[in-house]
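agent> step 3/5: call structure_predict on target 'Peroxiredoxin' (Alteribacillus iranensis).
agent> reason: downstream docking stage needs a structural representation; sequence fetched in step 2, passing through unchanged.
tool.input:
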Amino acid sequence: MLEQTYDFVRNYERQTINEQQEDKMAKKKRKRLLMRSSILGAFAIVLSYVFYTNFITGEETLVQEGETAPNFILENMSGEKVELEDYRGQGVFLNFWGTYCPPCEKEMPYMENLYSEYKEQGVEILAVNVGESGLVVDRFVDRHDLSFPILMDANKNVLDRYGINPLPSTFLIDENGEVVKVITGGMTEDRIRGYMEEIKPS
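tool.output (status=ok):
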């Protein structure tokens, strides 16, 4: 009976030691996981900063005021081809944007508010999305209830042709196809209205 009691105590001690060791290992795993998550989070922040400073906050474009806007053909959200030259005779508010760009998202509702009013006066908005998938853009369009044409520059060919560094960038194109103004950065609704007034066909 005494020997059985000793065996029970030894087994209990071994079990307790094993549980303590397993608990220590679990704590170490949690600590390693937390450390890895922190490192990945810091890495993501650094990447975001580099992307923003190198791609979104520049101030130069290749196409300048007074030049003819380079023609391009892009597909809209329905897969239909849209050519810039087809809008000769109208003013074109050509906006380059991305869903990942906060100033772009902020100005989109302003553009939508003015779209119908100025479309009737001969001004068309062409909003060129840069390098994103149709699914991502479609969700963004639905969320903001946008009705103006969204064009997809998936390979960034038009972005490169216009030499765009900052987003958003907007080109005001008159009825003759000439770039009358280049705007970099976000815009208020009042500024957008003023710009659309500038490119209304005479």
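agent> step 4/5: record observation. Strands lie at 73-76, 81-83, 91-97, 123-130, 150-153, 169-173, 179-184.
agent> proceeding.
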